[in-house]
């Protein structure tokens, strides 16, 4: 049971990245546009790209950790 | 100091942003995140920068119990992250006052918030008691400072518009070859 719960607890630490992703996406997009609609649309795209990139890295590390 | 305005692409052709005095806006934007934009009348973006950057900085400071932001340049502790944290401006400056007080042998203010560790052993104790929250707080506050540098540049020079935002013009279409 503990071997199942501990990796979950490690994953929960990733929640600390969510506010950072939101803030970085919003601020970066706001420096690229003046119109609030463009800012929101760009930040949504950027936030999704960052999340996907982090998920891909996490998946690679998970597979390596499981395999090696 | 010069006054400036930049043209932007958007709904209204020929619309410009009045940057007022870009140098004053940049200084204000560094001192208080978003204040440079508010000075320029770009209130929406100013409030956005202020909320995002200050909340990130404060969150980092709170989860690290006020320890993640401090200035130190001793043999045993060269606090490089403070250079990034300094980007947030006025909210990071109390660390310099606290360092001055500690180096003078006086007690730091505000219960030691933003005060440097007096000894390497005290720094080790922070790592021991705060665990990962010391590092997390450092990361949050560093990112807040770095993001404010982007915001300051935006206050100084205006936004970097992307080509995709340019409105399409009718005369861009290829001419019809049929008579």
Question: How would you explain this protein's 3D organization?
Answer:
The complex is a heterodimer of chains A (68) and B (179). Helix content of chain A is 84%, strand content 0%. With 68 residues, chain A is mainly alpha-helical. In chain B, 49% of the residues lie in helices and 3% in strands. Chain B has helices at residues 22-31, 35-39, 43-63, 81-85, 94-103, 120-130, 132-157; strands at residues 5-7, 16-18. With 179 residues, chain B is mostly helical. The mean pLDDT of chain B is 86. At the A-B interface, helix 2 and helix 3 of A face helix 3 and helix 7 of B.
What is the string of SSEs of chain B from the N terminus onward? EEHHHHHHH
Sheet with most strands of chain B: 2 strands, antiparallel
What global shape of chain B is seen? elongated
Number of helices of chain B: 7
Radius of gyration of chain B: 22 Å
Taken in chain order, the helices and strands of chain A follow as HHH
* Quaternary organization: heterodimer
- Rg of chain A, Å, rounded: 16 Å
What structural class do helix, strand and pairing data of chain A support? mainly alpha
Which whole number gives the mean pLDDT of chain A?
Answer: 88
Q: How many β strands of chain B by DSSP?
A: 2
Short characterization:
Chain A has 68 residues and is mainly α.
Note the main attributes of this structure.
heterodimer, A: 68 residues, mainly alpha, 3 helices, elongated, B: 179 residues, two-stranded antiparallel ribbon
Can you lay out the helices and strands and say which pair or pack?
The complex is a heterodimer of chains A (68) and B (179).
Chain A: H1 2-12, H2 17-30, H3 36-67
Chain B: E1 5-7, E2 16-18, H1 22-31, H2 35-39, H3 43-63, H4 81-85, H5 94-103, H6 120-130, H7 132-157
């Amino acid at each position: 049971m503990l071997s199942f719960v501990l990796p979950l607890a490690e994953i929960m630490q990733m929640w600390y990245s969510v506010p950072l992703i939101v803030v970085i996406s919003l601020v970066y997009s706001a420096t690229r546009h003046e119109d609030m609609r463009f800012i929101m649309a760009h930040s949504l795209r950027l936030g999704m790209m960052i999340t996907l990139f982090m998920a891909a890295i996490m998946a690679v590390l998970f597979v390596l950790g499981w395999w090696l | 100091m010069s006054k400036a305005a930049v043209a932007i692409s958007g709904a209204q052709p020929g619309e410009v942003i009045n940057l007022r005095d870009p140098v004053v806006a940049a200084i204000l934007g560094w001192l208080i995140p978003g204040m440079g934009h508010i000075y320029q009348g770009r209130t929406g973006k100013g409030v956005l920068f202020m909320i995002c950057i200050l909340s990130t900085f404060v969150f980092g400071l709170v989860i690290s119990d006020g320890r993640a932001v401090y200035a130190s340049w001793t043999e045993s502790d060269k606090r490089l992250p403070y250079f990034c944290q300094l980007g947030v401006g006025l909210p990071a400056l109390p660390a310099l006052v606290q360092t001055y007080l500690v180096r003078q042998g006086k007690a730091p203010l505000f219960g030691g918030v933003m005060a440097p560790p007096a000894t390497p052993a005290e720094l080790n104790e922070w790592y021991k008691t705060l665990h990962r929250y010391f590092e997390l707080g450092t990361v949050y506050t560093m990112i807040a400072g770095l993001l404010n540098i982007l915001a300051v540049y935006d206050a100084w020079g205006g936004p970097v518009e992307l080509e995709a935002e340019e409105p399409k013009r009718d005369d861009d279409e290829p001419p019809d070859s049929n008579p």
